[in-house]
Design brief:
583 residues; mainly beta; Immunoglobulin-like; Methylamine Dehydrogenase, Chain H; 7-stranded antiparallel sheet; 1 helix; 50% strand; elongated
């Protein structure tokens, strides 16, 4: 248990200031100059995978330390690999909008197998496959941008089924499907970029319902819905490229748009749910920016050229994902081409408090340090005195990218007082405070142990020849019985009556050889020794042998005092008398 030390007043919550680390084409090992990286995703092998749109067109694997391996074998030259997703089969799946159009399976060893528009059964030619995702049914689903616009799925046996605009019930013709995401409701959700713009909900059985901009409340026409992602709040979030907005749509179809905090002509692009409970998105505008939006609609932009480590770029930010290390990663397609990592502050959620009596408490929290060295402590203050803050010692929780449970026992608190507390986590990027919560300490009287009905029988006892102070029942000694209100630990003190001298209003021990006048004589109680017993609530019985510290008590009159202690609080002492006689 730690006793809290008085600390400084709580600091205000720090603003998020991410640090960017870039891996540059022509510089990072294995990364070709001017490769124009586009889509990016975490692969099933624990690496990052991305597409390279620049000629001749490649798929690339990248470790979190920045080593790149590029693969071209099996990719049709100049057909512009674009979208990418982790597939249901342990492979990667990509789109190639160039040429006849392709959807391709990529093994983690870099082997590419293309399904080609106009050749693969059910797959129309020249439809410009754009975005791709693994659906709730475990199949790859993709969008086809070119008219009349389609939504495709890859069936077992590498055939394709398309939901064609103007032909599939519920699908508008020439809708230009663009982004696609698996929703929390077991459906696919698709953006349709063209005017007036739409969001489509697609069941895995092929049923389509469209929500049209300009007709759906809160959804502005002609905003250019671009990419879409499932959010941490159970809704879908999408970017509006030409309308310069980030929008939320519930699974029932209610739309809310957010623009405050976005630069004009930001051209928001791809979007992903981040590791911190917010969403992160790329901006294609000049200069390129990374944006973050909380689920209440608060937007923060991090511009290239001013954000630490983020090289000034123009109109180039594309794919974005959460990496295997728990950080956000994104692609910069403009020359020389880069893959970049955003190192983010920790996520800290204040947990429950468990009161441990009248003076101590156990506090809990959950912290994610985003794969960076992270330390954690708690701040506590009385609700009535919030300006006076105490802090627990810092705990190092390592460099995990997972949510880590944290707890601490804190003592030195005051009975019956209400406190507020929060967790504080710090990594090299920033410091995060969890939300304040409260607890109330138990009143001392509610848990203080009390002993009643203390008796010793017989009151005149013979001491045992040998043994400890308490033991199993024997012919000698006596039985101590009493009732305790709590499962306390009781300390018994044996006091012997001895002659004393009155001095300064007290009965003190006389000096050796001192003659004591009759008028100053008194009887005092001197402690002979102690022993303890762990009680249960209710009646307790134990056998007292008449021995203390391995020695028999001498003949004479004694007093037995009992004081219980429970959860750090000592109860009132009670006493009874006994004597020791000859055998």
């Amino acid at each position: 248990m730690c006793v809290l030390a008085l600390g400084a007043a709580a600091a205000p919550a720090a603003a998020i200031t991410p640090t960017v680390t870039e891996f540059t084409g022509g510089v990072a090992p294995g990364f070709t100059l001017n490769a124009a990286p586009e889509g990016i995703v975490t692969g099933p092998d624990g690496n990052l995978w991305f597409t390279e749109n620049g000629p001749p067109g490649r798929v690339a694997r990248m470790t979190t330390s920045g080593d790149v391996s590029e693969f071209t074998n099996g990719v049709t030259p100049a057909d512009q690999p674009f979208g990418i997703t982790a597939g249901p089969d342990g492979n990667l799946w990509i789109t190639e909008p160039g040429g006849a159009g392709h959807v391709a399976r990529v093994t983690t060893g870099g082997g590419v197998t293309e399904l080609t528009g106009g050749v693969t059964m059910g797959f129309s030619a020249n439809r410009r496959p754009i975005d791709i995702v693994t659906g709730p049914d475990g199949r790859p689903w993709f969008t086809e941008q070119a008219g009349p616009g389609g939504i495709g799925q890859v069936l077992p046996g590498d055939t394709v089924s398309e939901l064609t605009g103007g032909a599939t019930p519920g699908r508008s013709a020439n809708g230009e499907p663009f982004g696609i995401a698996a929703g929390p409701d077991g459906n696919l959700w698709v953006t349709e970029f063209n005017d007036p713009g739409r969001i489509a909900r697609v069941t895995t059985g092929g049923g389509v319902a469209e929500f049209t901009a300009g007709a759906t409340a809160g959804f502005s026409a002609n905003g250019g819905p671009s990419f879409i992602a499932a959010g941490p709040d159970g809704s879908l979030w999408f970017t509006e490229y030409t309308g310069t907005a980030i929008a939320r749509i519930t699974t029932a179809g209610a739309v809310t748009e957010f623009r405050a905090g976005l630069s004009s002509a930001a051209f928001p692009e791809q979007i992903v749910a981040g590791p911190d409970g917010a969403l992160w998105f790329t901006e294609f505008g000049d200069p390129g920016r990374i944006g973050r939006i909380t689920t209440d609609g608060t937007i923060t932009e991090f511009p290239s050229g001013t954000t630490p480590g983020f090289t000034l770029t123009a109109t180039s930010l594309e794919g974005i994902t959460v990496g295997p290390d728990g950080n956000v990663w994104f692609a910069e397609s403009a020359n020389p081409g880069r893959i970049a990592r955003i190192t983010t502050p920790p996520v800290a959620a204040t947990g429950d408090a468990t009161v441990r009596g009248a003076t101590s408490v156990t506090l809990t929290a959950s912290v994610n340090g985003h794969a960076q060295p992270t330390s954690v402590h708690f701040e506590i203050s009385e609700v009535a005195r919030p300006q006076t803050v105490t802090s627990t010692p810092a705990q190092d929780i390592g460099s995990s990218a997972a949510d880590t449970p944290v707890s601490v026992q804190a003592g030195g608190l005051r009975p019956a007082v209400q406190y507020r507390y929060r967790v504080v986590a710090a990594n090299p990027t920033d410091t995060t405070q969890g939300a304040f919560r409260t607890f109330t300490m138990t009143a001392a009287a509610a848990i203080q142990a009390s002993i009643t009905a203390l008796r010793i029988s017989p009151r005149s006892l013979r001491a045992a020849a040998k043994g400890p102070a308490i033991a199993a029942t024997r012919p000698t000694g006596a039985t101590i019985s009493y009732r305790d209100s709590q499962p306390a630990r009781t300390t018994f003190t044996v006091l012997r009556r001895k002659p004393g001298i009155r001095r300064a209003g007290k009965c003190a021990a006389p000096r050796r050889g001192q003659h004591v006048a009759k008028s100053r004589r008194c009887t005092r109680l001197a402690a002979v020794g102690r022993f303890t017993h762990t009680d249960r609530t209710g009646t307790n019985r134990l056998h007292f042998t008449g021995r203390i510290r391995g020695r028999k008590l001498a003949l004479g009159a004694y007093r037995l005092q009992a004081r219980p202690t429970y959860r750090g609080l000592a109860g009132k002492a009670v006493a009874t008398s006994f004597g020791v006689r000859r055998r």
